[in-house]
Amino acid sequence: MQGATLPDEVIAVRAGRQPLAVAGQAQQILFGDLHVHTTFSPDAFIMATPLTGGTGLHPPADACDFARYCSALDFWSINDHAEGLTPPQVG
């Protein structure tokens, strides 16, 4: 499911703040996070529980909402530890 897109005015303002001239060509600086864990990862799960002082469990949807609406990232990537996400395959 895709969320709401940013208004054209917001995109234009962001683009206007970021141009950088390099060798006569306009370039753009983007900001992102390529190492995001949700509470699907065991280490993030443990640290997120209220017992350890965390704020509670956060699935990938929460990470997506935070990246889109709170952090103003241009890109991001979920990197959960997947060893516990699927059942073992017996072959």
Short description:
With 91 residues, the chain is of the alpha+beta class. It has 3 helices and 4 strands, in the order αβββααβ. It has a two-stranded antiparallel ribbon. A two-stranded parallel ribbon has the order 3-4.
Assign the structural class, choosing from mainly alpha, mainly beta, alpha/beta, alpha+beta, or little secondary structure: alpha+beta
What gap, in angstroms, lies between the N and C termini?
Answer: 35 Å
Report the β-strand fraction as a percent range.
15-25%
Roughly how many Å is the radius of gyration? Answer: 18 Å
Strand order of the largest sheet: 1-2
Shape: elongated
Helix-strand string: HEEEHHE
Overall average pLDDT:
79
The major β-sheet equals: 2 strands, antiparallel
Count of helical stretches: 3
Share of helix, binned: 25-40%
What's the layout of helices and strands?
Blueprint: H1 8-17, E1 19-22, E2 25-28, E3 32-36, H2 42-48, H3 60-70, E4 75-78
Report on this structure.
The chain has helices at 8-17, 42-48, 60-70; strands spanning 19-22, 25-28, 32-36, 75-78. With 91 residues, it is an alpha+beta fold. A two-stranded antiparallel ribbon has the order 1-2. 3% of the residues are buried.
Which keywords apply here?
elongated; 3 helices; two-stranded parallel sheet; 91 residues; two-stranded antiparallel sheet; 19% strand; 31% helix; alpha+beta
